[in-house]
Amino acid sequence: MTNGILTFLLLTAAASAQIFGGSNPYTTLSNIDDLTGTGNPGWNQCILPGCNPGGTGTPTSVTQTFGVATQEKDANGSMSVAMVAPSSSGGTNELQTYKIGVNDSITHFALDVWFYCDSNCGTYVNQLEFDDALFCTSTACTSFPNTPNGVNYMFGSQFNRQSGIFQIFNQGAGAWINATYSGGNIPGTVTTNTWHHLQENVHLVSGDGTSCTYAATTYPTEYYDSIIIDGTLYKVTNTGMCAGNLNASFAHVYLTQAQMDIGPGGTVSLGPTVYYDLWQLGVY
Fold it and tell me: For residue 156, which of 54, 29, 33, 15 has the smallest C-alpha distance?
């Protein structure tokens, strides 16, 4: 079976062209879950207290494992992330980021990833997050009003297991927004012990600040075009979200990442494990 990012067996050819840009020249990084290096490029972990992925708790342990054969979609094994959090925590998050490289000319992202949440997810996980981002520091980005350090194009999305709604992130507002389509809210249910398939297409228009104003401040606009969850296509109707000013300490890079949020509660000794496989990102 071909693992290219333009191959989606559950879509018609017309839908595939609509979502992933037809013949547009994507540069694809495939099988990110099988890449074991760290750094830039490579994997980076963000947990409190040294790095802040949100939440208030520091995990008791976070274990990232590659080549897991017990849960896999291909013959190379999956990447698993297991987290244990203190039972007293009001909410504990862990973020795994794969930094890819520098390319301020990127305008389109296409994400394709499979994930599997074990039985403990049903007890302890509140949100499962998937993001693609461009941290842009080019002259065009730093000269844009209200982004003196550059632009944080954070295309965030998450399955909110508490509400059962799929959400997208407004970086300028620092807030999660329920993603909508013609039928209402996009569903964000995650069944445990089951492989789920997430595919997303998003884009930006360099210098476009016409559609995004938050608290009387204008930011560049991010467009969430289409979401495919387990083969069901949703064309996002509240697509325009705000980018934000880049944190001065953030590196000049583009990346893909996943986050698991536990809490409140957690447990002293048990925690959820999420498996990721066939993780691909296409950009142009």
Answer: 54
pLDDT of 11 strictly over 50: no
CA 247, 250, 256 angle in degrees (round to 5)? Answer: 110
C-alpha separations of 61 from 92, 95, 157, 268, 270 in Å? 11, 13, 25, 10, 10
Give a yes or no: residue 119 inside a domain: no
What CATH number corresponds to the domain at position 271?
2.60.120
Evaluate whether residue 60 is within a structural domain.
yes
Map residue 18 onto helix, strand or coil: helix
The pLDDT confidence band at residue 32, using thresholds 50, 70 and 90, is: very high
Distance between alpha carbon 59 and the CA centroid of its chain, in Å?
21
* DSSP per position, 170-236: ETTTTEEEE-EETTEEPB----TTSEEEEEEEEEE-TT--SS-EETTEE--EEEEEEEEETTEEEE-
